[in-house]
Amino acid sequence: MKANYLLQEKAYETIKEMIKNGELEPGEIYSLNKMASQFEISRTPFRDAVLRLEQERYVDVLPSKGFQVHLMTREDIVETYQMREALEFYCLKHLMANQDTEDGQFFLHKLEKKVKAQATIINGDRNAEAFARKDYEFHRSMIQSLHNESMLAIYRNFMYRIFWLNVMSFKQPGRIDDTLTEHQQILKMIYDCDLEALAALLHEHLLVAEKINLRNIEARNEN
């Protein structure tokens, strides 16, 4: 059992990295048997890895054919931003209430470091993917501050979608700069204990990105 689990984990991580690096082409169907053979992994742990990736929306399994890279849909986008707002606001509210504790101060300083790293990227090459990585880390730190492993696991399952939706939104002119300003405002509102303003800003912060990505989906579907 342990050997199968390790093989499944190896296949899971390898396929995931191939998708992230663009080594698997969207629209192309990949055979489970051929890829399992290529990875020198038996079919069962390889299939289990693919099914796990399907649950996380990395791939779509096609019965009797294989699998293909999952293309983001309108439903994926709406679901992702609904999940993010619900979890992130809950965690920020908790962080605001506990900001004077040692743990609260630790995570606020962690958020500040992510914001500074984003400012460095803006003042440098303004790379959308590098900025998106720091954006994901900034928002993930909100979830980590609650020390709720079940909630963090849910958030991590959305990592791929969150990251690439961020990349696409940050290619919109001016969105990187606006995001940095909004992150700075989020921190200020926490320190000021302005929960109402924080709720409104987080909603707008995520809504803008959602609208950008929905427009991108519509444009893709028209082509």
TrEMBL record:
It comes from the Bacteria. Keywords: DNA-binding, Transcription, Transcription regulation. SMART domains: FCD (SM00895), HTH_GNTR (SM00345). CDD domains: WHTH_GntR. GO terms for molecular function: DNA binding; DNA-binding transcription factor activity. PROSITE patterns: HTH_GNTR (PS50949). It holds the Pfam family FCD. Residues 5-72 form the HTH gntR-type domain. InterPro entries: GntR_C, TF_FadR/GntR_C, Tscrpt_reg_HTH_GntR, WH-like_DNA-bd_sf, WH_DNA-bd_sf. PANTHER family: GLUCONATE OPERON TRANSCRIPTIONAL REPRESSOR, TRANSCRIPTIONAL REGULATOR, GNTR FAMILY. This is Transcriptional regulator, GntR family.
